[in-house]
Amino acid sequence: MTNIAVSTRQSSFSPLQLQSRSIPWQFGAVVLGSLFLALSSYIEVPMVPVPVTMQTFAVTLVGALYGWRFGALTITAWLVEGAAGFPVLAGGAAGVQHFMGPTGGYLFSFPIVGAIVGWLAERGWNGNRVMLAFAAMLIGNLLCLVLGTAWLAAMIGAEKAITFGFLPFIVGGLLKSALGAATLKLFSTYRAEPRDRSSKTQ
Fold first, then answer.
1. 20 to 30 A Cα–Cα from 159, which one of 36, 69, 110, 186?
2. Rounded to whole angstroms, how far apart are CA atoms 82 and 62?
3. Burial degree of 126 (CB within 10 A; 0-12, 13-18, 19+)
4. Are 135 and 125 in contact (CB under 8 A)?
5. For the residues of 96-122, what is the DSSP string, one character each?
6. The model's pTM
7. Cβ-contact 28, 65 below 8 angstroms
């Protein structure tokens, strides 16, 4: 039983390894992550009833880099900031009303998406295996669309929800998944270079 537990911990990998950092370091990472999520919200293509933003790219990337625990925590902190009135949601929006409107399902899905992508990344679906990283990002984007569309369907009906809340975002989801996987690949390459230089000098 002990061997199984040790093996599971060893197979789990979080790129930034936040769980082993100091409390100030972890707090700073959450602050920076929520800032990154806020900035991604300002990259927006206005659409009705749901705008196109870079939020899902940021959410999946934070999950993959931070791991499922700190990823979900950071994303939740960002959403709390938005609900509290800070202009950190799509296009600088703020307020609880956005969690009750057409975008509510997408917003509530974000911590779940970040946690799932983080959990997959910790188990090898990261920049070390770029196709698996792409698959993890794609799963995250698809889950966000499914949950968001289900919420929207309760408000405007299933047909309209699929037409306006799902189909227009498919291509964007694919592109953001590819960009996310490429970012993770670059990150893993950057992390590998210092180790390579160190091994050559020994």
1. 110
2. 17
3. buried
4. yes
5. THHHHSTTHHHHHHHHHHHHHHHHHHH
6. 0.86
7. no
